[in-house]
Amino acid sequence: MNRRLAAAGISGLLIASLTLAGCGQRSAEPTAGATQGGGKKIAKIGLIAPLSGGLSAMGAGMRNSVDLAVKQANESGAIPGWELQFVSEDDQASPDAGKNAATKLTGDKDVVGVVGPLNSSVGQAIQPIFESAGIALVSPANTNPSLTKGADLANPKRAYTTYFRTCTTDDVQGPFAAKYLLDQGIKQVATINDKKAYGQGLASAFATAFKASGGDVVGEETINPDDKDFSAVISKVKAAGPAAVYYGGEYPQAGPLSQQMKAAGLNVPLMGGDGIFDPAFIELAGATSNGDLATSVGAPAESLASAKAFLDAYGKGGYKESYGAYGMYSYDAAQSIIEALKVSLKDAKDATSARKGTVEALGKVSFNGASGAVAFNEFGDSKARVLTVYKVEGGAWKADKTEDFK
Amino acid sequence: MDLFIQQLINGLSLGALYALIAVGYTVVYGIVQLINFAHGEVFMMGAFGAYTTWMLMGSPTKVSVGFALGIMLPAMILGGVLVSVVTALLMERFAYRPLRNAPRLAPLISAIGLSIALQEAVRLFYGRIPGFPDSRRAIPFPVIEGLTGRSLQLGGVTIQFSAIFTLGALFVCATVLWWFVNKTRMGRAMQATSQDADTARLMGINVDRAIATAFAVGAALAAVAGVAHGLRYNNIDFQMGFMAGMKAFTAAVLGGIGNINGAVVGGLVLGVVEAMATTYIPGQFGSSAWKDVWAFAILILVLVFRPQGLLGAKVVDRA
């Protein structure tokens, strides 16, 4: 009897903790707009982003920014006769969870456009799902070039007609970082990547450009995304004598990597892409991260006149989390969908029938967003190629150099 | 040569961390033949216990070296040990003891359930306590003045203070454990229980208490490992127990599960293999991403040619 009681107690605890886990995630989501307005037709804008796990800091900024765009569109009555609603799904930064989220969104007959995801690997997994459903997917953060141009970059061919993005790509970001380091007089660099679609693509784009411009890549290493101990790989890299380390990957590994590098006596800057450009990187890397570098898409939000309205509205929105590295691009991605909906929903009788028109209209949008001019080229890529190098100074990211990269 | 010594030190200090956790697997297995898959979470609880102790001390940041090493660090270790030991004792009492005479599979499933429950408990509740950081992400571990980020430079070799701490902790813990198991009444009671629990009970040994002690001893070492992990990597997270637990379990099997010396040797071997493979295996197979492959390849080789593990089972008979 005693044994049974204990077993029952433990399984009860387990069930309770699982239920709580569910509630915990749901209660954190803001909901856009009021409940259904009088007699208006409903169209939904979805979001797929990591809302839990290591990358949730970035995901929350994306969610809040899209939420803001949808709220503003409803308030200003951007699309007469229609009420926009916002639905967000958690992809946990994993392709499998992303597929489930995508299937759930495509199964909702009211969804006309989706913003996301954050990770290129998730993007790869969910592109076909949205393609077959004919729903527009606009990523504010996928930077892997093959997502738009297909696997063979030498002969680019549009991979999915429903996929767009508002950020620049790694084939721009990697070379931009290479140029920056060479301009600083740094000729010897070792690269490390986490073998994920994003990290590998970024590191190889960087290495190719760095070598082409006369730099020397003294070591090319990989790590596992779930590693915590980098001492062995750091010692190996240190022996090669680089003047900087270029890391392809995201901040949950990059922060500890930077910290362990400095602790092991490898006192050179760590440079990465937009995946490490987050305050959490500095938190994890500690005080020795001063001088570390990151490139990110576009100009810093604070420096742009166009972003001021977004920043003000975000501040007034009462969101708990920062808009993060991709807030501005998520806001613009949502805006571009809303611009397209202005065309496609005008004469549509319901949301489902407007999907095709939305994708077509999206290819032609052109407006001034928070990040600057927003428009897509024939591959669905953003026409903007503005990038910024950020540097850690006194425990915060400071913009170092913004350039329109050719 | 410098690189070789550097990797040896990297490997040994990583291995020492594995070994500290592995001893917990081995002691428990030696006495009740249970693979306690929730042991990695006991390690995680130890790290969070140490962090909580630091928070309760008012999260002191700019303190003197003497205060940091003389009061803060010992208090944090003590706090971590307390949390881990209590967790392990509750675990033993409510999840394993009721299942002691059940089929082998039942406590194993109970262990896996517990490991998930503990992770979720930390993920859900830790960040909710006012003033405590969000536990869904990695939490920066407190800086211990005079230890964090400091290192010795010997020629071309860098020895971090955190590595010295980990190796020193393993040495002290292993010595104390050896003394405890061989020289104290309770230690001998544990050995007797591991040989034959029923006969030991007939001889007047409190078997329940001996088993609980084994859990507590393993948990205390895991908590020290938790602090060492925090000092070494400067951050802790609720998922840290899983991979560390896997590696420690591997180390315990490599050394011969049930054997305390074996767990120490197995941990060190595993750490050194990982570090050396990264440097000395040529081509892409030598990249850091492959280090786990080589570690497990060594494990398979050892198990094929020496199924009882490197040191066999000498401390306990039944392993």
UniProtKB/TrEMBL annotation, chain A:
Residues 1-21 form the signal peptide. Keywords: Signal. InterPro entries: Leu-bd (IPR028081), Peripla_BP_I (IPR028082). The keyword Signal applies. Residues 44-394 form the Leucine-binding protein domain. Gene3D superfamilies: 3.40.50.2300. PROSITE patterns: PROKAR_LIPOPROTEIN. Belongs to the leucine-binding protein family. PANTHER family: AMINO ACID BINDING PROTEIN, LEU/ILE/VAL-BINDING ABC TRANSPORTER SUBUNIT. This is ABC transporter substrate-binding protein.
From TrEMBL, chain B:
CDD domains: TM_PBP1_LivH_like. PANTHER family: BRANCHED-CHAIN AMINO ACID TRANSPORT SYSTEM PERMEASE PROTEIN LIVH, HIGH-AFFINITY BRANCHED-CHAIN AMINO ACID TRANSPORT SYSTEM PERMEASE PROTEIN LIVH. GO terms for cellular component: plasma membrane. One of its GO terms (molecular function) is L-leucine transmembrane transporter activity. GO terms for biological process: D-alanine transmembrane transport; L-alanine transport; L-isoleucine import across plasma membrane. It is a multi-pass membrane protein. The chain crosses the membrane at residues 12-35, 65-90, 102-126, 159-181, 210-231, 251-273, 293-313. InterPro entries: ABC_transp_permease (IPR001851), BCAA_transport_permease (IPR052157). It comes from the Bacteria. The lineage of its organism: Bacteria, Bacillati, Actinomycetota, Actinomycetes, Propionibacteriales. Belongs to the binding-protein-dependent transport system permease family. LivHM subfamily. The keyword Nucleotide-binding does not apply. Its main location: membrane. It holds the Pfam family BPD_transp_2. It is found in: Cell membrane. Keywords: Amino-acid transport, Cell inner membrane, Cell membrane, Membrane, Transmembrane, Transmembrane helix, Transport. It comes from Propioniciclava coleopterorum. This is Branched-chain amino acid ABC transporter permease.
